[in-house]
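Entry 14. Ran structure prediction on the chain below.
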Amino acid sequence: MRRLLPKSLVGQTAAVLILGLIATHLLTIIIFEEHRRVVLNETEQQHIAQLVAAISDIILSVPDDDRELVARASESHSFRVSLVPITPSSVNVVDDPQSARLGELLKRRIQTAVDEPIQVEIGEAKPRDELSVNATIVEWLQTRLLRMATGHDQDTALLVSVPLPTGERIDFTTMLPLAAAPGWPKVVATTGIFLFAVLLLSVWTVRRLLLPVRVFADAATSFSQDVQAPSLPLTGPYELREAIGAFNEMQLRIRSQFEQRTQMLAAISHDLRTPLTVARLRAETIDESDVRERIVSSLAEMDQMLQTTLAFAREGTESESTSMTNLGALVEAICDDLAELEYDVTAAIPDGIILPCRPVALKRALTNLIENAIRYGTCAVVDVRSDAQAAEIVIADSGPGIPAKDLERVFLPFHRLDASRNRETGGLGLGLAIAKRIVESHGGQIRLSNRDVGGLEVRVSLPVHFTKELQDVK
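Output, structure tokens:
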């Protein structure tokens, strides 16, 4: 059942409104039809009572010899008037509250003209009562088809016997009229048009009301990728303004913590550079070349560790502007620089892939990935492709690969795979962490997988259109 429910808040709100409107509309139709049926029945009963009373008064007011003629003249195909009582077996009396009410009404109307009690019988008519002497076959078929269509296969007959002072009785026999069936095609069509109009209005209204919520969600996504994302303006309903205010305050606190961390690491790096420089100068005075080279190498390694750690800490807090960049030219420049250093790099780069990015940061990430492929796999094969939605950079090497259980862990800061990587050429374990953070800050994804022929394959996917977090570049 939950699979049928809309996933979006707009869809769920519209579904609730439509279901509520359908239930309300159906209930209204049922109440209206019941009231309509009661009103029609009462109206028809009043009409029959007036007709019977009027004919009785006329017959009582004319001479005895003319009463038969008046009775015949008053008949119709659905209404019989006779001065000869019909066989009592022609009506099977049934116990019906509606019939009792009609009988009471007739007695009150006609009792004023005669002294004897009036006999009123309402029941299920036998087939021979459906067709009077004056009815045509067409009229009978019309009545029968109407009753079959409304589910009333058995007709309801009314027999009223009015006693006359001469000892005769006037017998009125008629079929009680059926309430017309509701026009369901018209009801369905009206309901459909009404619901469609309400649906359009509801969707438009809900989308307008939820627009600040959508902006709020986009801002949260943008901030998760870039701590320098701008704060949201306080707009929308009161509750949403409260939430936006709390979000902006949280954003400022987190940004402040990032900046404090970066400033602390920068201060540490600055403070350590002076003693490192002094130690390097003193090492140069050592006469033994082997000892001197080892000390200088260790000091250079320490300086590189400081630079790499500081670069990792600064990532995400730098304010490099975003611009439309030729991805092919960017990757080609990286490969050319590495090829000049006599590294084994081959690339298949199409032209014309333009996407929004921070070029310096993206170049740093791709350089880390390609250098990793060269360092641990002896060579790098770079392939760039794109479609209407995203550009993909595939970097493959021929190295030992990575155990499947560590394919995600290698992105953790300071995590190194000593068993699968050469320890002498290994870094601090920050290269992949920096690359992942940069790629995700562009709204992209980075995935690792082992090749069937051996080696590791890195896939970097980047959007080729402006996402919410990159709108400020225009």
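The CA atoms of residues 384 and 393 lie 5 Å apart. Will compare against last week's run tomorrow.
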